[in-house]
Amino acid sequence: MDSTASSETLRPAGPCAVVIFGAAGDLTRRKLLPALYNLKAHGLLPGELAVVGVARKPKSHDEFRMEQSEDIAEFATMPVDGKLWTGLRDALYYQSGEFADPETYVSLSALLGQVSRKHGTGGSVLFYLATPPDFFGEIVRRLGEAGLTREEAGAWRRIVVEKPFGRDLDSARALNREIGRVLAEHQIYRIDHYLGKETVQNILVFRFANGLFEPIWNRRYVDHVQILVAETVGVEERGDYYETAGVLRDVIQNHMFQLLALIAMEPPSSFEPDAVRDEKVKVLESIRPMAPEQVLTHAVRGQYGEGTLGGKRVPAYQREPKVSPTSSTETYAALRLNVENWRWAGVPFYLRSGKRLARRNTEITIQFRRPPLLLFERLCEAEIEANRLVLHVQPEEGIELQMKAKRPGPTVHLKTVRLDFSYKDFGETGAATGYERLLYDVMTGDSTLFHRADMVEAAWRIAMPILDVWKSLPTHEFPNYAAGSWGPASAHALLAPEGHKWWVSE
Ligand code: BG6
Fold first, then answer.
1. What confidence tens digit (pLDDT) does each residue in 199-226 have?
2. Which of 114, 201, 329, 502 is the most buried (most CB within 10 A)?
3. How far apart are CA 377 and CA 374, in angstroms?
4. How far apart are CA 92 and CA 52, in angstroms?
């Protein structure tokens, strides 16, 4: 979060309590608490705040505070100011209990009453479901039964639901129905941490606050779009979860479809949450789900074998902890999607993502059409490369425009030059966890950056035929790429019919 922008343009959120279900988990210690601390440091937390952690293990408030103090020392993204942290620590509370036990909610309700009196939090409560997905529906139901989701006398009750939101279209629909029986849509915040990234939020600003690009942002000028989410990490300790997911569910169906929607959407009529989300959902609905036979030519899957990364040998996916030695889970996928609307018809969107790839890199490349070549063809040995606009999401953060220029000298020689903007040019922006903006938005009731029920379902509709075909035709070719490479060779075939090539910035 940019500290200048935040202090100049944002005000602290109003009084509220934050309840974190699954407070013993990694997300709380690595992201949520550090993010709350950063918000406090930026003056964006209300003075009247309490944070209640809920988890199974019995523990006193003081024990919880002590643990969180150790964790913040380890996971804070900015230097911790003792006085500020003490202020936050003293507002931490703990409630033990099983998520399925009605007693947990009776005690929680009593505790919320106490903290409201002590900290003046009023009746507004943010419930954060940082639990395994099996509990999402159950917790919401129990909160409803305990009367904890009722919004009265100007107080709000909002629920943040972590990913994965369902594991296919049917389960996502069922979950939407289940939580929809208790909550109104405006109370539900389906979080996607990709949308908390500065560079992702900047896509809309870049597109709609600059007059330059919008006129050429369409099929007439854009040749194709590539979206890359490359990770060097393997599945780490999450093998049991990943075996039920694979990259299509884990990264593509949510994070990458959101990136695609931001790139392809029409200008919204305003920056009201539903105006923005209406446009995004239209993009997802314009992607016609693949017919089964298309899956064979428009989608490629891969799984990493052993290889070398950063000079070290790393094991194959099938050798990772909690992974089946004969696993057919995909750790890499590449898709070719068509957005069938007036702006984008005929412009392929190529998406690829994988674990254990050569380099960590998330970037979006808009490749423009080539100029007619006749003028310069005598002077160029190779084909003139097209102009590319690259939105660097991470770890580089910036925007790059690639153009042709004449190399100085008596003859005409063309060279690709880069017009570059780096986020570093903004100066010190303060390290962030990526959750600050999202938590702040929930507290202030701004759901722009959260998935709406129809968006989740539209995204699953695109993923389903691919998942179905992959399930019914298990591959015998895994592993099919070496850790440390750029993925399976078969991914090239996806672009070949159009004469395109995978491209990655240097
Ligand atoms: C998560 C996935 O949603 O996103 C992980 O579950 C993945 O498997 C992560 O590694 C990537 O996020 P980031 O912010 O590191 O790019």
1. 999 999 999 999 999 999 999 999 999 9
2. 329
3. 5
4. 6
Cα four-point dihedral sign 498, 458, 247, 75: positive
Q: Which of 119, 193, 224, 255 is catalytic?
A: 255
Q: Where are the alpha helices (DSSP H) in 319-432?
A: none
Q: What is the pLDDT of residues 219-270, one digit of tens each?
A: 999 999 999 999 999 999 899 999 999 999 999 999 999 999 999 999 999 9
Question: Residue 429 Cα, ligand 1 centroid: separation in angstroms?
Answer: 22
Percent pLDDT > 70 in the chain is 96
**φ, ψ for residue 309 (rounded to 5)?**
-135, 130
Q: Which helix (H) or strand (E) holds 444?
A: helix 436-444
- Is 250 near ligand 1, meaning CB less than 6 Å away? yes
Of the candidates 239, 198, 253, 259, the one whose C-alpha atom is nearest the C-alpha of residue 437 is 198
193, 396, 451: residue to mutate for ligand 1 pocket, most atoms within 8 A of CB: 193
What Rg, from alpha-carbon coordinates, does the chain have? 24
Q: Is the peptide bond before 15 cis (omega within 30 degrees of 0)?
A: no
How does strand 92-96 pair with strand 49-55?
Answer: parallel
pLDDT of residue 195: 95
pLDDT at 334: 98
Atom of ligand 1 nearest to the CA of 362: 16
Task: Decide whether any atom of ligand 1 lies within 6 Å of the 162 Cβ.
Answer: no
pLDDT at 346 over 80: yes
Q: Dihedrals φ, ψ of 274, to 5°?
A: -75, -25
> Which tokens go with 488?
């399976």
Burial class of residue 386, CB neighbours in 10 A (0-12, 13-18, 19+)? middle
> In the 8-state DSSP scheme, what is residue 421?
E
Which residue would you say has higher pLDDT here, 447 or 406? 447
Q: Would you call 392 a catalytic residue per the annotation? A: no
pLDDT class of 92 with cuts at 50, 70, 90: very high
Structure tokens at 225: 């779009």
Q: What is the pLDDT of residue 57?
A: 96
pTM for this entry: 0.95
The mean predicted confidence, pLDDT, of the chain is: 94
DSSP string computed for 189-215: EE--GGGGSHHHHHHHHHHHS-TTTGG
pLDDT exceeds cutoff 60 at 466: yes
Please, which residues have CB within 8 angstroms of residue 288's CB and are 6 or more apart in sequence? 338, 340
